Amino acid sequence: MDEEYDVIVLGTGLKECILSGLLSVDGLKVLHMDRNDYYGGESTSLYLSQLWKRFRGSDNPPDHLGSTKEYNVDMIPKFMMANGTLVRVLIHTNVTKYLSFKAVDGSFVYNKGKIHKVPANDVEALKSPLMGLFEKRRARKFFIYVQDYDENDPKSHEGVDLNQVTAKELISKYGLDDNTIDFIGHALALHLDDGYLTQPAMDFVKRMKLYAESLARFQGGSPYIYPLYGLGELPQGFARLSAVYGGTYMLNKPECKVEFDESGKVIGVTSKGETAKCKKVVCDPSYLPDKVKKVGKVNRAICIMSHPIPNTHDSPSVQVILPQKQLGRKSDMYVFQILICQ
């Protein structure tokens, strides 16, 4: 370990592993360390015994739940947009050869006390109770505008500068009601709160286009995909990429201390009395707690159920979005359901 590196990366979360992989591909000498004995950091996927040990202090879950290795429980559950940036990075770096993916079966939204499927095609849209007949006609005109919009083609802008008008001003042009706006903004554009309505409409439109492009990519029931064996597979995929290009990995390295010189410039990392020198350190916030500021938190709950979520057509994998207005909250709630893969 007593060597000099271009970059030392601390933590094997998704962001850290992506950076480690890309830096190694770029020819830099990379050392990647983690205090844990597994990859993934906070975004790891755990067997049932590991999950029980983490939250219950014992690695002996109840027998009726089945074999511990039949479970891969994501600590930060997240579906990926099928045409999103992360998927493009996976394809560009060829990390996809280390992974298997599955399309998510359905996308749902909570509205007026009921769960409704987000339409995935024209037939579903016509049958959907989310909008009335006349509202569907108005919404269709808006969807066509979004579909045809090309940032580089002024003819498609219809005289509207999306960098100047707000999302609310753009939507009002089509006369959509509040219920439809709530559905579009949260179930399609995937905004977490209503703050987007007062922001320039460009990001709102790009998010809707991404949803449509992702939905069309696999012709499935939703625009989402996920790693077949859990989200923890993603960090491991990029870790393999880094190793192929010469990156060095060290797990189970406790008390990784970032060393600074008198001027405050980073010079290395010490663990177990050994110091690795470096020019730069990249780490997750937990390795430098005195240099980060906590600005918020996310509450998560893990439920092991014996049945699918009601009113989701018994779909094995779904996402249900509960918009803030429907719950009287400041931000949306997301529910992910993934069936155990046999």
General description of the model:
This protein has two domains: 4-101 and 228-291, 3-Layer(bba) Sandwich (FAD/NAD(P)-binding domain), CATH 3.50.50.60; 102-226 and 297-338, Guanine Nucleotide Dissociation Inhibitor, domain 1, CATH 1.10.405. The chain is α/β, with parallel strands linked by helices and 342 residues long. Helix 1 packs parallel to helix 9. The protein starts with a strand and ends with a strand. It has helices at 14-25, 48-56, 85-93, 122-127, 133-148, 167-172, 178-188, 201-218, 233-244, 324-327, and strands at residues 4-10, 30-33, 45-46, 73-74, 80-81, 101-103, 106-111, 114-117, 224-227, 248-250, 257-260, 266-271, 274-283, 317-322, 333-338. It is built from ten helices and 15 strands.
Q: Outline of this structure?
A:
This protein is α/β, with parallel strands linked by helices and 342 residues long. The protein contains ten helices and 15 strands. It has helices at residues 14-25, 48-56, 85-93, 122-127, 133-148, 167-172, 178-188, 201-218, 233-244, 324-327, and strands at residues 4-10, 30-33, 45-46, 73-74, 80-81, 101-103, 106-111, 114-117, 224-227, 248-250, 257-260, 266-271, 274-283, 317-322, 333-338.
